[in-house]
Amino acid sequence: MADVFSEENINTLLATLAKEETTRDGDGTGRKVHTYDFKKALRFSQDQVRTLTRIHENFARLLTSYLSTQLRTFVQISVDSVEEYAYETVIQNIQKSSILGVFKAPPLHGNMIMEFSPAVSYVVLDRLLGGQGNITQKTNELTEIEINVIQRVFLNALNNFEEAWSSVVKLTPELRELEVNPQFLTMSPPNETVILISLIAKIGDVEGAINICLTHVGLEQVLPKLSARHWLANQKKIIENHEVEALEKKLQGTKLDVTAVLGKSVIEIGDFLNLKSGDVIRLNESYTDPITIMVDDKQKFFAQPGVSKGKIAVQITDVHGEGEEFDDN
Predict the structure, then answer these.
(1) Distance CA 117, CA 140 (A)
(2) Residues whose CB is less than 8 angstroms from the CB of residue 261 and which lie 6 or more positions away in sequence, other chains included
(3) Rounded CA separation 270/41 (Å)
(4) 95, 103, 140: which is closest to 119 by C-alpha?
(5) Quick one: which H or E segment has residue 314?
(6) Please, how many CA atoms are within 13 Å of residue 103, restricted to the half-sphere of its CB?
(7) Phi and psi (nearest 5°) for 7?
(8) Taking a C-beta distance cutoff of 8 angstroms, is the pair 44, 216 a contact?
(9) How many CB atoms lie within 10 A of CB 113?
(10) In angstroms, rounded to a whole number, what is the distance separating the alpha carbons of residues 317 and 58?
(11) Helix (H), strand (E) at residue 54
(12) Average pLDDT in the 247-271 region?
């Protein structure tokens, strides 16, 4: 045993073990271990976040169009981020003097929040009340007139919100109240998971934020629809419907050749070659019979000839083959 475990062998073994420990702990090439907090596990998948981003990119375009028209100035709104937070974190980070629109959107459950930052709120108010849009802060409380004006803006924004979501679910947004103090909001428990959609809004020379806070509980019933496949399928249907509408609209302006046929007759070639002014051709129809109206060389109507505003005209008396397609004649 002494030959096997000599002092030299033991020292060599200890040195090898120490070197392995140094390699594992000190060279930085091993995997880093992160502490995972199961209480804060992500509730929204990346696919759902991407779909929410696309929905609100559409919302941003709609709101840009609305505000540009109303404010008569340059407006550009775009999605900055779509991230998951605890409700209390969102409330703690709301800017002072922001105007908050609390709304419901059945069939989604619970309340939701749309926040206009001070820069957005007061520039919009200033422009709508005849100003130049230079006011970005307000020290005193909103007047009744200002409340009514900004309320209309929120209501129209919710109309845009409804339209943006229409590719996923039919919503019926309803503005419940306007609030300027987030501490008065009791939308969800502090640790409730919410998704915050942050938009950057540029109005003239001023830049501010528009945030939309949606709860996980409120969105739970539509989460299966928040997939790229489902969203793209619905977008395709919407595009197809728009194409049909555009085609129908274009067809409305299409011109058709309409011919009124007084009657028909059969004559010999010899008679035809000898026709001259004053000759009479006897038609097969009686003068009391209705005349035929041809649409693009197809019989469609029967009519009575007459005069309207000094010009020869026909009055439709019946439809040929009503309920059927055009018949070749």
Answers:
(1) 16
(2) 291, 292, 293, 294
(3) 98
(4) 95
(5) strand 311-319
(6) 26
(7) -60, -35
(8) yes
(9) 25
(10) 51
(11) helix 46-71
(12) 81
Q: What is the DSSP letter of 8?
A: H
Q: Structure pTM?
A: 0.60
Type of residue numbered 75: V
pLDDT of residue 323: 46
Q: Which helix (H) or strand (E) holds 200?
A: strand 193-203
As a whole number, mean pLDDT of residues 24-42 equals 55
Q: CB atoms < 10 A from the CB of 225, how many?
A: 15
Assign 265 to helix, strand or coil. Answer: coil
- Give SS3 for 84: strand
CA distance 66 to 128: 13
Q: Strands 206-215, 112-116: parallel, antiparallel or unpaired by DSSP?
A: antiparallel
Domains and CATH numbers, the chain: 46-245 (3.40.1550.10), 258-273+280-323 (2.30.330.10)
Q: Which residues contact 93 (CB under 8 A, 6 or more apart)?
A: none
Measuring CA to CA, how many Å separate 253 from each of 248, 269, 284? 9, 42, 36
Of 7-16, 41-50, 183-192, 258-267, the least confident: 7-16
* pLDDT value, residue 327: 45
Is-cis flag, bond preceding 107, omega within 30?
yes
Q: Rounded to whole angstroms, how far apart are CA atoms 163 and 65?
A: 13
Amino acid at 2: A
CB 56 within 8 A of CB 162: no
Is 215 in contact with 192 (CB distance < 8 Å)? yes
Polymer length in residues for the chain: 329
pLDDT at 176: 94
For residues 163 and 173, give the distance between their C-alpha atoms in angstroms, rounded to a whole number.
10
Q: Which helix H or strand E contains 69, and what residues bound it?
A: helix 46-71
Mean pLDDT, residues 143-166 taken together: 94
For position 32, what pLDDT does the model report?
Answer: 57
